[in-house]
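Audit log entry. Action: structure prediction of a protein-small molecule complex. Ligand: zinc ion. The ligand was supplied as SMILES and no pocket hint was given, so placement is left entirely to the predictor. Protonation state taken as written. Sequence taken verbatim from the request; no trimming, no tag removal. Recorded inputs:
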Amino acid sequence: MLVVVVLFATVLLRAGIVLTFVYLILPTKRVCPLCGAQLVLIQHSVLRRLVPVVEHRWCLECGWSGIVRQAQSRVINRAARS
Ligand SMILES: [Zn+2]
């Protein structure tokens, strides 16, 4: 039983490390990485509830679409409201 707990803990630790690394490499700026234009927020109710620290944005100029980190002030404001 101890072996199962240790293996499960290492799996959780690896998942935590990978998720942290992926979060840290997400872009934080609100400009397109390809053309530099402003990105438009795409509202996702499921994404907002499951992972509130990221948001889906879209570039109107070149069509780039991707996940970016949410601004810290919005995260803090949302936490303060709830
Ligand atoms: Zn663009």
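Audit: result stored. The chain has three helices and three strands. The chain has a mean pLDDT of 88.
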